[in-house]
Structure formats: structure tokens, C-alpha cells
Amino acid sequence: MILQLLFLLFLLLVLFLLTRKNHNLLFLLLYLWTGSRNFAVNFLSFIFLPGTLIHEVSHWIIATILRVPTGELSIFPKIKDNGEVQAGKLEIAQTDPFRHALIGLAPIFCGLALIYILGKAFLSDLFLTGYFSFNSTRDYFLLSVICYLLFVVTSSMFSSKKDLETIVIAFPVTLLVILMLNYIGVRIFFEASFLEKTAQILTELNGYLIVCSAIDLFILIFFQINISLWQKILKKEIAVIKKN
Predict the structure, then answer these.
(1) pTM above 0.85, yes or no
(2) What is the distance of C-alpha 39 from the center of its chain?
(3) Tens of pLDDT along 38-97?
(4) pLDDT tens digit string along 149-160?
(5) 52, 45 in Cβ contact below 8 A?
(6) Nearest Cα to 216, choosing from 10, 1, 16, 5?
(7) Do residues 140 and 134 lie in contact, with contact meaning Cβ atoms separated by under 8 Å?
(8) For 191-206, what is each residue's pLDDT tens digit?
């Protein structure tokens, strides 16, 4: 199970790098076509709106479960004075580092859960049972929708620096407590059936994340080729946007 977990972390790193690059490339492509920074930002936010909604709502759900008061919830973009774009926002009250860290990590866990559900419902059928026959428009349309949802979820599930600002406290303290408990002989054991089921889920999830990485990589190559072509056609100089 350790190997599956390490591979999961590796795939998350790959997806993080791919999605951040895709955000910038899509903005640059839209800016090349329109010449309007505001239009590019707003259209980019529209494309990722479902993911932004999932991201902020997952913050809200975990904050509610942990009894941390919340304030304004926004899923619409806002350009800050320093040029960064804030895709969404949920105000939360001051709380301890541990609950703040859990709230900050909520979109990642929620995103992984959604990827697993979509993968289990559709991707397993695609590769194992031949659910998609590709003999009708419906199959192509459904597969396109699934790819879009996977792209949007992976692009929006990673937490911002602000979301994770307390993890530098919560993680070392949690690790220290675990090491201390282990040192004094307090250990937690799980049944073999639970570990086996968890390893199976991680293996399946890693397979779905590989598919997500392939989708993001294909989109990255597509954006990069189009940007290169349009730069030559329009002879425009473009700037990179910062996204929070």
C-alpha cells in the first residue's frame, strides 16, 4: 500500500504542474484571439466554473463539519491589485492550525473522490467492459463530457498558498505526535481486509489519475501548438497571467 500511496503523491505532483501550465496557456491563447485581458480572465473562469464551485463548496462543507464559522462565498473571478486572479473565495473565521489545514486540503480530497467516482462509473467500463461502442454520437458526447469534467476537477482541486498556510504548523506537530506515540509503544493496527481494500482503491485511483494526466498532457500540447501558430500569424507579444 505504501508504494500505491507514493505513486499517488507523484501523480498529484504531475497533475499540479500540468494544470498550472494549462491555466497559463489557455489564458495566453484567449488573449491572442481577443486582445482583451479581462475577457480572457472571465472566459477562463467560466470554463473552470464547475471546478471552482466544487473547490469552494468543499471548503465550506469541511468548515461546517468542523464547526468553523464561514462568511462570504464567491465563485466569480476577481483581479487583485498585484495582477493575480482569485478564481473563488470563502471567508472562514480564525481557528486552530489543524482545522484550518483540513479545510485547506478539502478540495484535494473532494477532487480525488470525484475522480474515483467518475472513473469507477465510466472509465472502468470504457477499458474493461466496452461500455462505449463509439457507434453513436451519444458515446462521443458522453466521453467528451467525462474528459471535460476530469480536466476541470483536476485543474481546480489544488489548494492555494493561503489555504495551506497553516500546514507548516499542523503537519510537523502531527508527525511529531505520531512518532512520540510510536516511541512509547502506542501503535494503531488495521485489519488485513481494510488494508487490502484500501490498496485496491489506491490502485484504481492511480489508474484514473494516469488517465487525467494523459488528458491534461494532450490539452497542454494542443494549447502549445495553437499558441505557436497564432503568435506567428498575428505577430503578437503576450504576457503571462498569475493565478492564485
Answers:
(1) no
(2) 23
(3) 888 888 888 888 888 998 899 999 999 999 998 888 777 665 554 455 667 788 888 888
(4) 999 999 988 877
(5) yes
(6) 16
(7) yes
(8) 778 788 888 999 999 9
CB 92 within 8 A of CB 63: yes
Phi, psi of 174 (to 5 degrees): -60, -45
Q: Give the separation between CA 115 and CA 190, rounded to whole angstroms.
A: 26
Grid cell of 232 as nine digits: 506567428
HSE-up of 75 (CA within 13 Å, CB side)? 16
| Residues above pLDDT 70, as percent of the chain | 86
**pLDDT tens for each residue of 11-39:** 999 999 999 899 888 888 888 888 788 88
Name, in order, each residue with C-beta under 8 angstroms of 236's C-beta and a sequence gap of 6 or more.
32, 35, 230
Where are the chain's structural domains? 2-166+199-243
**DSSP-derived 3-state class of residue 73:** strand
CA-wise closest residue to 98 among 166, 164, 179, 158: 166
Closest CA to 88 of 111, 56, 40: 56
* Burial per residue of 86-118, b for 16 or more beta-carbon CB atoms within 10 angstroms, e otherwise: bbbbbebeebebbbbbbbbbbbbebbbebbbeb
Q: Cell numbers 461502442 correspond to what residue? A: 133
The 8-class DSSP code of residue 76 comes to S
How far are the Cα atoms of 95, 139, 143, 180, 229 from residue 146, in angstroms, in the given order?
Answer: 37, 11, 5, 45, 28
Q: What angle do CA 196, 198, 202 make, to 5 degrees?
A: 120
